[in-house]
Structures are given as C-alpha cells and as structure tokens.
Protein: DNA-3-methyladenine glycosylase II
Amino acid sequence: MQQFTIRPKAPFDFERMTRRLQGVSHEMFRYEADALVRTLRVGGKVYLIAIRSTGSVEEPEVQVTVRNEASREEAGLIESRVRDILTADVDLQAFYNHVSQDPVLLKLTKAHYGLRFILEADLFECMVKTVIGQQVNLTFASTLNRRLIEAASKPLEHEGELYPVFPSAEQVAALSYEQLRENQFSQRKAEYVIDFARAVASGSLDLEELRSLESDQIMERFIKLRGIGRWTVECFLLFGLGRPNLLPAADIGLRNAVRKGYGLEEQPGEGYVRELGRAWAPWESYVTFYLWESLNQKEPLPSPLTNPL
Structure:
C-alpha cells in the first residue's frame, strides 16, 4: 500500500466536487466514509485508490491511498494521473478574477466557489462513455456503461469487496456487436464503441498523442471517425483533456443556462452564445461548467442584464 498527498491550488472544494459526482451517478466511483474510491488503470495495471480531503477549501490537501500493491515508481505515475483527474493545478482564482465584472458570472462563482472539473480516469474511458451517452438520458447512459463494464472486464477484488474496472481498449475490441446488442445497445452504438476500441487497440489511433495537439486539431482528427461528431469531441476535450478554453455554444443546456442567467426572453442561438463568450476567454470551459450547474439551482439567478451584448 502506498500513500501520498496532493496539495491543489486554492480554492478547492472537494466536498462540493464529490456531491456533484453523486448527483450524476458516476458508475466508477464509490463513497466509503469520507473517501472517493475507484479503480484506475495505469501502465497496463489496475489499482484501487481512495481519495480523501484532509485540508480545507482555502488550504486544500488531498490524501491518496493506493490500496493494492504498487511500487514507488508506480505510485508516482498514479499521483500524476490523480492530479489530472482532480484538475488540481487549475488556477480557479484567475478564472474568478477574469469574470468578476460580469454580475451574473460573479454570482455563479460565489455560488459554486471551489468547484472544478473531475476528469475521467483516462482518455479511452472518456470517449467510450461519451459515445454511449449520445442521444440518451443520463440514467440510461449509466446503465449502458455498467453493462459494458460487466461484459468486457472482471471486477477487482479487495478485502472481500468487488470494484468495477473500466475495460481496456483491447477488452472492448474483443467484443462482438451482438454482445452489446444483447445489452440494449443499438446496432449503431455497438458499432461505434467497438470500432473505436479496435482503432485504439490496433495502434491506428494514439490517444496519448492527442495531449500535445490543439483542440481544433483534435476536432479535425476525431470527426473523421464514424459515430463521433462535434458534441462528442467537445465533451472529450472538456472531461477527458480538461481544456479550459472550450465553448460548446450549440449545447442546449448551455443555451438554456444563458437564457436563465441573463434574463433573455428566448433561448439564444449558437452565434449569440459565441459572441457573448468572447469575454469569457480563456476560461470558456469553466463558465460553461458553472452555467450548467446553475440549472440545478432552485432559485433563479438575478437578471441585471437584459441584453449582455
């Protein structure tokens, strides 16, 4: 067992972040006492990690325990991955300062202070789950994710408990379309998921190489693949790579949040959101994230600007 401590940049509200995960019923995480627990595939091996906050929002500290056997070198790789997952190095205060002159966004940053993205564990997992989530509700997408996990991989057993393991590209590539059809995948969705896995497993698509590319280059590369469109790539850039400067202006949820927050009479179009978003750069992703979260607020945001443009 290995333990290490991560000290993210403040503010960092671990409790708020984990509550959001619970709200979206993330199928890979468990909540044991005050720890966030999941399996993690690093360097071809599967580890069971527990993440626990031992600090505060303004003086954040996170303790990570690798519950199964790992060398010091392996623990170093896991630490780097967990830092990425928790977006520990993102400077939220710089984001808050940048949008502080917008009354709507100022209220949002106060309401969700310390909230940041928790990224998917690896790029393969992110893209597969995003493809599965196309044109279905969150509940059914979660069901399909669980069925894929059960069909393609074995759980990790630790101290008598079983923990789900997201399958590798090779494991998904070995499935047949019929196996996924038997688990309520549509024929097209089964093909999209398995064909994508086969491209990764064969080496014709190198996901790690994408980290060094610009977002528009990644978009250009991915939309050539069957079953992957602009929305899917935008989700991948947000929740896989954690790009801070992405604006999914066509997203209905974002447009609804802009309408609600800015007191517009009608839902704005994509062009309107892009024009409004010029002032958000280079933090468009975080403005989008906070606006999405505003849709879950019970009381409406104030509407100081009837036309922010």
Confidence is low (pLDDT under 50) at residues 299-309.
